[in-house]
Amino acid sequence: MTMMDTAVKPIPAYAPPEDGKPRNAVDEKWMRLHRALMNRPARLAKKAQNIENSDRH
Q: Which parts of the sequence are annotated with region: Disordered (predicted)?
């Protein structure tokens, strides 16, 4: 089996701006995704609470 170099470069990890303010559309997108990920447990708990309350007529 022959190995070939595909010239695929790794994507650098995203680092948010130090001041917490987006510099451009890419920062805005990644910061929005990060906030959504961090708020996910709270959203799931709220959704579960709403479902539980709707079951209790």
A: 1-24
